[in-house]
Backbone:
């Protein structure tokens, strides 16, 4: 029994090291004084300075953030509305739409990317910011629907009907009764959509145009030469994501403790 417990712990440490040591490596060498990625010659912030001084890199950050934010907002609204509509639809319609919704997630990204590329080229739509944004919105919507649907299954159907009986309009019943009950699923879907959009490379590569690069396509374009500024960019992204995760996890814990304290008092 002890041997099995020891092996489980060792396996867990090995997996954690496999995931996090590369990140620590990137962060460590982002402060290297030289361009070397294997020999640390001294502490320096020059790559952070060069990152902020490089126009192309700052533009890639701007486009990645802007597209991710817009795609998250639009896909969250659209996905939530579709999910609510499906919850009130017949079983046949629900099954058909659910299966169609799962297709983009089951398909390899390269298939979806080529499909978008052929669609835009067939309609003679020039690739650029608009096509990149549209592609991100479309492939983010299924993830929002998938996150919201379980919460809707747990929702009591009588709540909306009770709100209507008490004088609420359908819109008031939606944002005063239904949305507060499923807000956790909406937030989860929005976080997944933002992550998928911000992280995407394959679909972005096939749907972007000249002069429009997000972080992933920019990094890919610089892989043929050593660019330690990419390490600095990666470090800032890791720190920002860590802060967001801490905030999103700590704030609910603080609220829960306050509620428990109020109940005890």
Residues:
């Amino acid at each position: 029994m002890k041997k099995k417990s020891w092996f489980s712990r060792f396996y867990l440490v090995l997996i954690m090291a496999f995931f996090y040591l590369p990140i620590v490596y990137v962060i460590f060498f982002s402060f290297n004084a030289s361009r070397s990625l294997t020999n640390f010659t001294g502490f320096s912030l020059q790559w952070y300075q060069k990152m902020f001084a490089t126009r192309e890199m700052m533009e890639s950050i701007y486009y990645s953030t802007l597209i991710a934010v817009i795609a998250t907002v639009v896909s969250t609204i659209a996905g939530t509305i579709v999910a609510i509509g499906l919850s009130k639809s017949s079983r046949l319609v629900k099954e058909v739409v659910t299966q169609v919704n799962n297709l983009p997630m089951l398909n390899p990204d390269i298939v979806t990317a080529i499909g978008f590329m052929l669609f835009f080229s067939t309609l003679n739509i020039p690739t650029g910011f608009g096509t990149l944004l549209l592609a991100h919105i479309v492939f983010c919507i299924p993830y929002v629907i998938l996150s919201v649907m379980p919460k809707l299954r747990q929702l009591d159907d009588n709540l909306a009907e009770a709100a209507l009986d008490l004088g609420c309009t359908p819109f008031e019943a939606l944002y005063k009764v239904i949305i507060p009950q499923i807000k956790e699923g909406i937030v989860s879907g929005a976080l997944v959509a933002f992550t998928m959009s911000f992280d995407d490379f394959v679909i972005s590569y096939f749907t972007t145009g000249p002069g429009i690069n997000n972080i992933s396509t920019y990094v890919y374009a610089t892989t043929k030469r050593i660019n330690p500024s990419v390490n600095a960019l990666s470090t800032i992204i890791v720190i920002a994501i860590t802060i967001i995760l801490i905030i999103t996890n700590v704030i609910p814990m603080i609220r829960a403790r306050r509620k428990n304290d109020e109940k005890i008092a």
The CA atoms of residues 34 and 41 lie 6 Å apart. Residues 229-264 form the longest helix (36 residues). The chain has a mean pLDDT of 85.
